[in-house]
């Protein structure tokens, strides 16, 4: 064999240094050291500087897993899909900025029971935490919220534009644990503004609260949201149908899920927790006009978005009877005079008659339409025709009159 065709196996059989993946700690397990994150995934302390060539890779893997875990928590916490802005405790003023052992911070607000003198908080700034928001942050914002960790007393959130309150909402905490409080904004919401959160005294002592974030949310309801309602009838069965547009349920907070209430205004029957679009068989009250009103609710709060349809089971009202009327004319032929008259809108089957008279003359009774020769005196004379109900008075007493008409003649 030619030496050039030989293969040296020493390099193939030689034991090589093994490649070993770095060990990763469980990102969901509380660590004794390392950067902490708050509930929105922001680093509270620490940095990303590594000490080996694998450090950045390890840290970034932990970051990805942490973000995924925190994101999953918020999917559980809320059906809402987006925030327009988020301000953390470090960006607020007022109260006392406090950092927990895990690096997350919050604002402690209010006064404990033993910290008041004559019902006045020792620190005037202790009861309120606030943050300024820009017009850019407020663009697309329909409501502003505060996330609290706990507390007692009455918590209130305000949004102010130019010193004027544009939205506010309150809640009694009563040691009920963590949660959120939102307020829907008015029409002047998309401007620079101030969001303030205040804890008020409860009975004879001041309350306390801990808040960690103030954030904005797009609304579940668009400005051009509409609701439409109608009904169909099949025999004696009535079905009310409705639909709505411009409402996004994915932006609703827990406890504020959008629903419809259906109310029959005639009976007061209110059916809650209906879908935003649907239909329902109803039982309208006989003999009346049944107006069914759909009202859009956010949780337990009714809004001004409504639509309605009416099922009228009231008996048909006959048209009003036409008013009787008469006309009287006087004609001359040679030296003779003739009066002729006609009456309209006389009810069928009625027993009416007419009475023709002039001052100082006799009264002639006749039918409601006809003619008769007359002999007017010299000068101008007015003849009067009275149409009367003979069932009330056979002689045409005033209480039997239905209508009158008159004509003057000069001889």
The tally of beta strands, per DSSP, is 26
Q: Per CATH, which architecture of the largest domain?
A: Sandwich
Strand-pairing-aware structural class: mainly beta
CATH level-4 homologous superfamily of the largest domain: Galactose-binding domain-like
Q: Which CATH first-tier class of the largest domain would you pick?
A: Mainly Beta
Number of domains: 4
**How far do the termini sit from each other?**
164 Å
Overview of this structure, please?
The protein has 411 residues and is mostly beta strands. The chain contains 3 helices and 26 strands. Strands 1, 2, 3, 7, 10 and 12 form a 6-stranded antiparallel beta sheet that branches. β15 (258-264) and β16 form a beta hairpin. The protein starts with 9 loop residues before the first helix and ends with a strand. The model is unreliable at 1-55, 62-80 and 114-119 (pLDDT under 50).
